[in-house]
Queue: 3 jobs
Job 1
Amino acid sequence: MVRPEIRSGYRVTIGIECHVQLKTKTKLFSAVGNDAREAPANTLISHIDLGMPGALPVLNEAAVVLASRAAFALGTKPQPFSKFDRKHYFYPDLPNGYQITQFYDPIIKGGVVTFDVAGEQRQVRIHEAHLEADAGKSTHPVGRDYSLVDLNRAGTPLLEIVSEPDIHSSEDARAYARELYLLVRYADVSDASLYYGNMRFDVNVSVSKTDELGTRTETKNLNSFRSVEKAAEYEIDRQIALLESGEAVVQETRGWDDSKQETFSQRGKEEAHDYRYMPDPDLPPIVLSDDMIAEFQKSMPLLPNIYRDVLKHLGLDLATIETLIDSPANTKLVKNVLDESDAQHAKRVANWLVNVSTEDDDDSQQSDNRVSAEAAIKLSKMVSDNKLSSTSAKEIWQEILVQGGDPEALAQSKNLLQVSDQGEIASIVQAVLAENPKAAEDIKNGEMKAIGFLVGQVMKQSKGKANPTLAQAVIKAQLGL
Amino acid sequence: MISQWDSIADTADQVLTGQVSATELVQRSLSTIADKQEYNAVIATIAERANERAKEIDTRVAAGEEVGRLAGVPFVAKDNFLAFGAETTAASNILKGFDAPYQATAIERLEAEGAICVAKANLDAFAHGSSTENSDFMTTSNPHDKNKVPGGSSGGSAASVILDMAPFALGTDTGGSIRLPASFCGAVGYKPTYGLVSRSGVVAMASSTDVIGPLTRTVEDAAIVMDVIAGRDPLDSTTIDRDEVSYTSLPNNLAGQKIGIIKEYMTDGLEQAVRDRINESVEKLRTAGAELVEVSLPSIELALACYYIIMPAEVSSNLSRYDGQRYGFSHPEAATLDQSYNWSRSEGFGNEAKRRIMIGTYVLSSGYYDAYYNKAQKLRTRLIDEFNSAFSRVDFLLGPTAPTTAFDIGANIEDPLQMYLTDIMTVAANLVGIPGISIPAGQAGGMPVGLQLLAPQRKDRELLGLASETEKILV
């Protein structure tokens, strides 16, 4: 570790390239299924994905729509004119010998991502974002003299989002990565499952004591926010240590070893490819009219910062807001509850949701909420109307969240409905007062804390179904207070 | 030359009315191919599948079913078309043994109208050449003189038509590869507007100039084939809408047509006898009432240089997929991935493919891209402007298809630059994307001369009309 006083003498500069897998039904250039998660190897392929002679790419319009949405999510508009280029290199999982990407005229130019880190606003400008086809997957079985290639992923549409070097700490790098994740999920551009590698980050780090940028390294293929932060942190320390000992930072591509929590050298600059970019003559340019762009904009879902404002107005604290924000389904539910009822119910539902939210890096169990705003409001109203204790409400909430269903019917079948019948409670209170004359006397003498004990006795006798507020009122009434 | 084939329309009509069977036509085709084997026009026949299809067509005709406007008509496809029933090699060692898993759209459309592919024609490997001498397998002979080349790269296709093997053949034209062999063999060769015929299923050479078209004995035959294969294809995003009117419904008026003679094509390096035939054609057109004027396209002299940058760039990219990993030739002794790449490609590609890969790789390299590729693209834009401006003054353009008649086999093989010059009068149309046609305009020294006619983009029907009328007065 570099000592803080030495470290503070350096300015850290970080830029991030992020690959996002777009949630189209079919691949970018072929009419083959795009969901390679569970498919046996080499079953989602066509003559186009295999790079057969005479095969021509045909652009999937859905990918253009999603990229356009991403443009709005990144605070800009899609370009009215963009086109595809070929990036050449030989590798067995790249069947054509070139990747189709957008080098000269990307679909997104500019943009900005705005987010908070510990209450302070950060802005990271977007340099550009381009559409490209993913390569296949190579595996190299240990101890074997062959490698295996699976082309199911070949041709999957990716959007590569390239930031400007506007990030200056590993913590901010993590926050930026998370914000991109939120943006593409809220914009409904990508499933963005980190678990399935739908989002991958390449982190460019340099350090310098002057205004001039230092030599940078690029650590590739990070697949969690934590590894983005750790890899950046590791590189900052490593580079400063090198410079402090009089050595130079080598411009290179590095990998991340998650078990050792270290970056390692993969490829030096001298081994860098000349990709021989060339316009792809098989694909006409993407031309978007003003009307089309306006149409895309109209169909934009609400973005995280809008929801953050909504949640802030409910009086929720920052930690609760950020936990909720991790799930678009949750925030949408809270907003729907707000729109269809009021802030009191929305806040209660928000708090229920936070208690069952998962960690931000573990999104393998992503699923939509089964609970409707209508059911959530109904459940919340039962609490407000004293029909259900808050403990019982949480129990029912857990159930309808997973299985759906009507909260009232569920409360009834579980025998959780509170007794709010004055007469019934009055007779229980009568019995309890008779059994506990000392406590009754204490209360009369002004020792109000004993009332809690009596309410507890009423709850016990009613097997938890008595409405505690009502019980307290009846106790006071019977004691003449 | 009297042909054993009637016009395509008449032949199909005879099949549909039961005067001749598709099986007989396929037999006629296959036996002619066998008789004229020594010309090396054909790499492989598709006998089994052709006979099966013929039988099926005959059954359907007998049953009174709809069969199509090319019922039973045999044809030959250049071996860079993916087709069932025989290997698709593009005359290259690296694709030897490749069985196509799907068919070219052009083949599919012809088959849908009842045509039957009987053989795969020889070509310069990957269509790289102007003589078929660059075929990795064999050199095709000119039907008029066995010691001369048939032109290229669709040399096998042009020769097969003139050798009477089939009523028509399919070719591809990237820089002149349909028109040039048509000129050298005395056939009609039609290069449509870029994008009018789908490239899907055709081994790519230079994607931005590749087009597909017919080689036939008459313009009428070329028109009917065009009418079947033209039009948008969801498998090729560069295809364009076809003419709503049938390409067989041709304008037949020569009088008043304004035709520009390309000045730059009538000067340097043009063989005298070829010039004479072109001048005679011009006079005949004048006599028929057409208005002929000289038109200058100054940048056309740079077209060849421009073409030999853009084309190899695209070739180097398009040939990347032939890496010995998934199909085609893979070096059996390679022990590592790098060896597999290097050895498979070194042995699988011929000299011309390697030459173009190297030139293309060079012009696309970082640091050279702007000096070569980008500059060539700018010149291409200027050429397009000059042609547009010419076409604002005239309806069509005219010139020779090639500066010479067919040359001797071996004459240019050691001199790639001299060979490239053969394309000098054809490449501009490819760079500009306009339609062009070569039709026979007599002979010089016993060898055919081709007259080239060019039209603005999408004026294919008009061009076929002009060519059809011109053909009548030249015969």
Note: The radius of gyration of chain A is 29 Å.
Job 2
Amino acid sequence: MSVSLLLAVGVLFAAGTVLLLERTLTRVLLGVMLLGNGANLLVLAAARPGAPPIVGVAEPAEMTDPLPQAMILTAIVITLGMTAFLLALAYRSWLLTGHDEVQDDAEDRRVRELAERDEGSDAEDLDADVVEAPR
Amino acid sequence: MTWLVPLPVVMPLLGAAATLLMFRRPRVQRAISVSVLAATLVVSAVLLVLAADGPLVVAVGGWPVPAGIVLVADQLATLMLVVSSAVTLCVLLYSIGQGGADGDEEHPLSVYHPTYLILTAGVTNAFLSGDLFNLYVGFEILLAASYVLITLGGTETRIRAGTTYVVVSLLSSVIFLAGIGLIYAATGTLNMAQLVERLDALPDGVRLVLQGMLLLAFGIKAAIFPLSAWLPDSYPTAPAPVTAVFAGLLTKVGVYAIIRTETLLFPGGRVADLLMVAALSTMVVGILGAVAQSDIKRLLSFTLVSHIGYLLFGVGLASRAGLSAAVFYTLHHIVVQTTLFLVAGLIERRGGSTALDRLGGLARTAPVLAVLFLLPALNLAGIPPFSGFLGKLGLIQAGAGDGSALSWLLVGGSAVTSLLTLYALARVWNLAFWRTPATVAVAAPLRSSRLMVTSTAALVVAGMLFTVAAGPLYALTDTVAADLLARSPYVRAVLP
């Protein structure tokens, strides 16, 4: 297993993580792509390097393990689909709001403001308007 | 009879293809979806009966076992299959009823039925998978479908909520994939039965890293504190049936994956203390969040997080009694939480909102709705004789049987959480159902079709059935727990 491959994985993961913490969806998207490729390289590093795994071209003992490559192929397809979906989300967000920054949840903000004003989350207190059971 | 095993995955996938082709014919779409899910339910029930004689194993594509992918239908997987397919069927009927009531017979979203069926296929694939990579694929199938469902319609709030959900889920998928890569590097296999012995042979430190990676990935999906903040943020804005099926199933797939990997791959309870602490904080933080909310859907999302803590408590105990109660509680919670979200959907249509300060007097104006809410609410809070009480009782007994200081702390935490759940739900009841109707004029309530009410009622009844059948069901989960701890039945079935 080569050290350079693992270093590349480390760099991809680090850069991806930084980008993922951004508020702008486009940067998050770039972060997801870097992270996905980092994971793919990591899976690739799991396999023993060697000759192409084609019967007749190389001796079985010298072949690389084809299974991680098959898994990476699956993972690449999945990452591609997810990237396309995120891109569509970013575009939709831009269409609706004119930017692609992820906003705070409105309800979260409301609960927080209520807490700051030291009020309960029930706008009307219970005692005030509990009714008698219907007769 | 092993040819039945792939059907719960294959049928919804084929159904999804068929409904996609029929996108111009909503009536045909509905007929296909309902019959496919009904057939899945029947097949799952048959599999549950067959699995009593030992796990059914299918090597997909006829590849020799450790090299190819296997599907394993043991009792745990089939129990989850039966409950999940019953729930998905009821929610599908509810959403069909909602489509009918809204009069969008002419222009329904043609993408809804195919996506819903793919979601089902992902869930069943995750339950049946005997291979870690196939489990990953199962997760991706259900997540990809859930991304579409949670942003259905593409309104501003749904896009905002969906973005959080998608990004967090993608992160957990990357961690899972990296974990798979590391496990393959360390052991050279991803077949779970083969992993059992190969993981046991690894040095302790390496095993701990692998276990930590998987726990982290599944912990995000199962919404365990401190990895749970995304859930109450993203679930409430989706359409009612979508939120309901997500709440019932998606987090439970994460819990199922935790139960499976913690018992089969990493037994011995090395991280038991960590799991217990996470369980306690999930319960307490979740329920305190619920108490602070003033919107029914958000409140229910927080109770969902909180009750994941109970399931984790049972897993952390790692004893037969603990696992048995955890499986029982998982099954109960799938049904009850889904029901409550469906009822919240009905409340929203009747009262025009799910905000507690805008609702009132529903007990008088909508008595049927009141009954439909009260029964699952009491069930969730754990009032005897409902199954929520029986599940919590089993967990508390298991915790007391364990006897360590931490498990007594957890026992106390479960009791407090249960009381606070009752408080949170009683607040909903007082404000939405018993108070005088709000002075704010409610916009004309949307009509709820009979199908919506009937399918919700069916789930309420299903929740009651857990109480009636608690004895036999506990006997069943007890053998499930024994098999999980023994590990050998699973391994011998896959690698004879």
Note: The mean pLDDT of chain B is 88.
Job 3
Amino acid sequence: MTAWLVICTIALTWLGAGAVWLVGDSRPRWQHSLAVTFALAAAVTAVLLIPQATDEAVITLSVGGMFGTFTFVPDGLSVFLTAVATVIGSLAIVFSVNYMHGEAQLGRYYALVLLFIGAMAGLALSGSLFLLFLFWEITALCSYALISFYNDDPKAVRGGVKALIITQLGGIGLLLGALITRTYLGDYQISTLLAQADTLPPNILSLLAFGFLIAAMAKSAQVPFHTWLPDAMEAPTPVSALIHAATMVNAGVYLLARFYPAFAGVAGWKTAVATVGMVTALLAALMAMVAFDLKRVLAYSTVSQLGYMVYAVGVGGVFASQLHLFSHAVFKALLFLGAGAVIHAVGTRDMRQMGGLRRQMPVTSVAFMIGAAALAGLPFFFNGFWSKELVLEMGLEGGPLWAYGGMVLGAGITAFYTFRMVWLVFWGEPRGAAHAHPAGTAMRVALIPLALGTLTTWLVVGPFGHWLADTLPYHHLHVKTTAEFLRDIALAPATYVAIAVVGLGLAAWWWRDHLTGLAKDLRGLAQFAANGFGFETVNRVVVNLTQRAASALQLTQTGDLNWNVVGIVGALLLVLLVLAG
Amino acid sequence: MNDMSILVAGVIGLLGAGLYGLLAVRNLFQVIIALQVLVKAAVLALVMAGYASGNLALGQSLGVTVIVADTVVAVIGLALAVQVKRHLGTLDIKALATLRR
Amino acid sequence: MLNLILVSGAILCALQAMQTKRLIRAALWLACVSAFVALTMYRIGAHEVAVIELSVGAGLVTILFVFGISIAGEDAMDAPAIVPKVLIGGMALALVVTLGLLLLPVGEGSPQPEQTSFAVMLWEQRALDVLVQVGLIFAGVLGVLGLLADEAQVAHKPVKRETAVANPEPVLAATETPAPQEARA
């Protein structure tokens, strides 16, 4: 039963991808409904999988040789990420029905999105490091292809190539980790690595730990690898919501949380993780303050919130990171889809040309503001508040104080830029020439569940914790009931510090006219932030080097069959000589 | 020189002839013919191996599979060659290298 | 002795097929290779596969080649080889010599009495292969139909997209003034 659910979750999306492709672009109506049907079916199977979660492999497939055994283990972490990917994926596809209406090459779009959802489910569910790597690469490939979806736009293509190259760096780290595990422990199973991590030589274990950290940093867009995510915003907005906010970028956090028990003992690893998270959260928040592109603001805020999750893992709060991942996936998908509705309506991404949209798009603006309140961490009714407070509380308990200070400051800046964004888009007077029209039905259908989720998911914190703890034998999570959680957070002094800072952030926006002096003083910082703190240059060097190496190797690609056969025969001769010698 | 050695030499010779063809010819049809020669060597090797190990039936059934696959390859290759001729006006494989800078 | 003649005949025909400049001749030389190989296989007792090879390899494939060549037309090709001649000959020779030195001579095989007949082997023990072959043939037919059919023309609608922000200027506390180029009266 469980095995079938696992198979169905992955297979349904991939079958759907094939079906949409086969139907052909001449029948867009069919493509829309097929994509929605398959995505919803996969979401249903993934949700059905939740009560079946177990820490044992439900599918074991021996592929022999170097590849070891492929297993699927639907434990708490996996099923959780699968459910997030499929449910939000299906909502993004529902949203696309309106958003992509009338676009050319719908088949390519839907097929890639569905392929991505399946690969993400596979990534989460696989119990073998090698299989994990395979799915990891498929998600990277889909992400690249979807960022470059408008492939006649050079900016989109450049963004896609950049994302591909940078996330590949992470992929190499993961592959190396898998091979090292196989060499020292005899197989690729994640459970083997978690169980026998302390039998590895210490230097090898730290190599693994930091290799996986780099993999996670590249995938989750942590400083200094964060620059690909803002450029990825050239993708259609539902794709940004799905891949670059709610799911794929979480894969890095998932990786860290998954292997936390194995690496927690490695000297300096936790501090490194917490530092990476803190620096990312802060720098990305600063960059979000000065961006004018609505999707870029959201992208930077995603990077920043991912920093919170990474920080949470670094201070030992695996559960806090997963809870924040949950909240963030819901409210950030909501924000992105809301932004998509806005962009679709006004035809620009520049916030300076929006304004006053709350009257023209009432449903979208209310939904967006709910998401924004959760992002800012406004107290009590929004899931973002509870999970962020839990992260900060864990930070105060288990991490260095300076990192905690940075995170609290980050929370204040988050409130500031969130408020700025909402103000520029929905309040004030209309500034753009374009006349906005309300969001379509399918868009609203996708927005409303996410808005409701943002208001309610914090209520399931207790059962969620127990469910995770029951199926994760190596993580030793300490869980409480919902009531205990809420009471602890509500009574913790850290909470009031954070609320005060969030209030300060809002106040700073409100009285921004009085702060112009300060703003002038910080102009240099603003310029620096707008230029991405110079990391852009580093990344450009990496990307350029890769591309130059590729063009140098192009010389060997004559495209002539005869020369290719020379290569083949030459290699054959070499092999024969080795065999003879 | 016994019979088996002759057969092995034949397989090697056919392999050499096929690879020589792939190295030398520029006509798309002849490329397919060179592939056919290579596959003939493979079929002969399979059947011969079945004969030498006393399991000729197995060798034969594998040989049949290879023949079928190879025929499909030839058919698809021919159709592709016809399309190439139709679109590019030539069968020279040099004309196919359009991906170069 | 007969084997030697058959085998060298096959190799000679193969070389001829590679050497000739006329396509029809190349196809006919290939048919000869096929015939020689089929005869060789018949001689060592592989009767069934020899018959299949003769009918498919020498018959069907040759007809297909002639058909294809008649559609595409003879393409006289006097252009010199792309790879230097020395390299071609050297590599082919080196490969044959290395393989020969590695493999030859081989001992006499130990032909044992047949336990299973070809039919039983093919239909019962290798049923999966047969299934795969059916799939292959089907795929081949589909592929050829797809290739020979005229490509369907798909009309593409123009792609609409969002306009991105060009070079946002940094302002810490954003003012609500519109972007300069979009300023309204």
Note: Residues 56-88 of chain B form the longest helix (33 residues).
